[in-house]
User: Which sequence fits this backbone?
């Protein structure tokens, strides 16, 4: 409820995040994961077919630095931006939202952040669906607020 209150007043902040990254996703590993789920679920040939180089950019952008400091300093911020960039860049002919959600979960899992200390998912599947769809229909000027909401859904408060 507090997150909704802060969202309404646009006072959402990023806090209680994880600085120590255990895992760094690469473009090639992401492509391999896309191929894996394509084969596993029998998705059609156009699923995961890249339109351009924007997917590669989505992966690399989460690791950008300025003056030696990460632009997205926490694992949660990197994960949230990964989800956002893959959805918004629309890099694939088919499957952009599914790929974004899958890689978001994969990235969190590889960084030991998918589950809380009790073994519960930090973000429920239906919440991930809702936030992914919200990103897809959002306006560019809403990006920062959406990122903060996503971080708050997966941070150490959960």
Assistant:
């Amino acid at each position: 409820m507090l997150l909704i209150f802060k969202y309404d007043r646009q006072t959402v902040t990023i806090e209680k995040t994880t600085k120590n990254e255990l895992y760094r996703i690469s473009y090639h590993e992401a492509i391999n994961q896309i191929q894996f789920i394509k084969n596993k679920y029998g998705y059609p040939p156009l699923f995961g077919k890249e339109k351009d180089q924007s997917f590669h950019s989505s992966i690399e952008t989460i690791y950008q630095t300025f003056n030696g400091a990460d632009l997205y300093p926490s694992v949660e911020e990197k994960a949230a931006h990964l989800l956002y960039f893959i959805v918004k860049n629309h890099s694939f002919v088919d499957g952009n939202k599914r790929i974004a959600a899958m890689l978001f979960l994969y990235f969190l899992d590889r960084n030991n952040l998918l589950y809380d200390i009790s073994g519960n998912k930090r973000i429920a599947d239906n919440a991930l669906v809702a936030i992914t769809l919200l990103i897809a229909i959002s306006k560019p000027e809403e990006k920062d607020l959406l990122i903060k909401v996503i971080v708050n859904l997966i941070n150490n408060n959960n």
User: Anything to note?
Assistant: The longest strand covers residues 65-66. The radius of gyration is 15 Å.
